[in-house]
Amino acid sequence: MTAATLAKDELAAKSAEVEPPVGTVAVGAAVAGAAAVPAGEAAMRKRPKLRVKLPPGREWFDAAWPPVVGVLAFLGLWTALAPMVQTSLGALPGPGDVWDAFKGLLVEYSAARADAAAAVADGQRYSGPPTFVDQIFTSLKTVAMGVTLASLVAIPLGLVAGMSKRFNAAINPLVQVMRPISPLAWLPIVTMVVSASISGDDPALPKSFVISAIVVMMCSLWPTLINTAIGTASIDKDLLNVGRVLRLTWRAKLTKLVLPSALPYIFTGMRLSLGVGWMVLIAAEMLAQNPGLGKFVWDEFQNGSEKSLSRIMVAVIVIGLIGFGLDRVMLVLQKLAGRDARS
Questions:
Q1: 290: Cβ–Cβ under 8 A, 6 or more apart, which residues?
Q2: Where are the transmembrane segments (predicted)?
C-alpha cells in the first residue's frame, strides 16, 4: 500500500468524524427553524392563502361613472322638464312625486297585509283588492309559467329541426307565418278556447292566469326555437364524425355533443323569449283585464285621480326594472350552465 493511499484513507476518516449524518443535519435545521418562527406565524404559514384578484380601483371607477352620470343627467332633465308637460290630470310628475307615490303603494301593501292577518286570525277569508306588490308577484308567476311552457315546446323542436334538414324544411313555413302575429290577435282566440275548456266554479288554476300564460307562451317560443335550431345546425362536423366513429347512440349524441355545443344559442333564445314574454304579458293584462301590472296601469288610468299619473309612472319604472333584472338572472344562469358544460 502506497503513501498516497494511506493519506487518502486518513483524510476520509477525519471528515467522517467531523461531518454529521445527512438526516441529523436536516432534523436539526427543521428544529432550529421551528424554534426561530413564532407559533402564530407558523400557523399563518400553514393556512391556505386565498388569492382573489380584484380589479384595480381605476377600472371600477371607469366602469361605474358613465352609467351614474347618465342616470343623474336623466333625473335632472326629468326634474326640469316635468312641470312644463301638462296633461289632463295636471303637470307631469317629477322624480320626487313618483318616489312619494311608490312609498304610498308600499304603505297600502303593509295595511292590506295587516288586514289579511287580522281576517285570518278571526277565522275569515280576506277579500280585499290586490295591492301593487301583489300585482307584481302575479305578473312574475305568469311570465315564469309562460316562458317555461315556451321553452318546453321550443327547445325539443329546435333540436330536432337543427339535426334534421327535412324537419326544418317542414316547420319553417309555419314558423315564419306564426312568428309575426301580434299577441293581441292571439288573445281572443286563447280566451275563447280556455273559457270553453276550463269549467267549474273553483278551478285549480284561475282562467285569467291560464289565458295570460298561454298568450305569453304563444308569442315567446319563437326566439328560443329559432336560436336552438341555428345552434344545433352549426355544430362542428368533426364532432359529428367522431360520434359516428364511436357509434354513439342518439341519446349519447344529443347529451354529449349536441347540447353542450348548442347551449349558448339556447340561452340566448331564452333571454330573448323572456324579454318578449314580459312585454307581451303587460299588454295582455291591460287588454283582457287579467290580474297583474298591466291591469294595475289600466285601473289607475281609468281612475283618473290626481295621484293616478304618479302611480302609473311607478308601475312603468318597476316594469322596466323587473325586465332588466330578469335579463340579468338569465345571463347568470347562462354563464353557470356554460361553465358546467365545459367542466
A1: 208, 209, 211, 212, 284
A2: 20-39, 60-81, 136-160, 181-198, 210-236, 257-288, 308-326
What is the CA 163 to chain-centroid distance, rounded? 28
pLDDT number for residue 107: 93
CATH code assigned at 137: 1.10.3720.10
Residue 59 belongs to some domain of the structure: no
Q: Which residues span the domain enclosing 320?
A: 132-198+207-342
Q: Are the C-beta atoms of residues 222 and 176 closer than 8 Å to each other?
A: no
Asked whether residue 70 is assigned to any structural domain, the reply reads: no
In DSSP notation, 136-154 reads: HHHHHHHHHHHHHHHHHHH
In a domain, 33, yes or no: no
Query: What pLDDT was estimated at residue 54?
Result: 54
| Helix spans in 246-307 (H) | 250-253, 259-288, 293-303
Task: Answer yes or no: is 193 within a domain.
Answer: yes
Cβ(284)–Cβ(216) below 8 Å: yes
145 touches 212 (CB < 8 A): no
Q: Which residues of the chain have pLDDT under 70?
A: 1-56, 200-203, 338-343
How many domains does the chain fold into? 1
If you search the block for the grid coordinates 315556451, which residue do you land on?
Answer: 150
Spatial distance between the Cα atoms of 78 and 114, rounded to a whole number of angstroms: 36
pLDDT per residue as tens digits for the range 4-37:
444 444 444 444 444 444 444 343 443 344 444 4
Q: Does the predicted TM-score (pTM) go above 0.85?
A: no
